[in-house]
Specification:
By secondary structure, this protein is an alpha+beta fold. The protein has four helices and four strands. 22% of the residues are buried.
Length: 103
């Protein structure tokens, strides 16, 4: 994985997700206790988009860093699917919290 500079943003001209995928999916590998994200992948048509999003999220926690993740996506990812990505993050966090309660 290459490290993008702090001032880099990801710009998507025509959102390929709209044309190729019926739904946007994010898969996360996280620490079961802290929610820290180890790896993430989105089913985007462009690998560089998923790589950029991964770099924005790895190391943050689904359980305690939602505002930081939202801010990074809204300011550094300039694609049409920004709000959908935030919804995916919140859904993944809710599922992790539910699992913790059931465990």
């Amino acid at each position: 994985m290459r490290g993008f500079p702090q001032n880099a943003v990801c710009v998507v001209g025509q959102n390929p997700i709209t044309f190729v995928h019926q739904s946007l999916i994010g898969s996360f590998v996280v620490d079961n206790t802290t929610g820290r994200i180890y790896a993430v992948q989105f089913n985007t048509i462009c690998g560089i988009t998923s790589n950029f999003l991964e770099e924005q999220l790895v190391g943050l926690s689904l359980l305690s860093d939602m505002e930081e993740m939202r801010e990074r996506i809204m300011t550094r990812y300039l694609g049409d699917s920004r709000k959908a990505i935030i919804v995916i993050l919140r859904d993944a966090a809710a599922k992790l919290r539910e699992r913790q309660v059931l465990a």
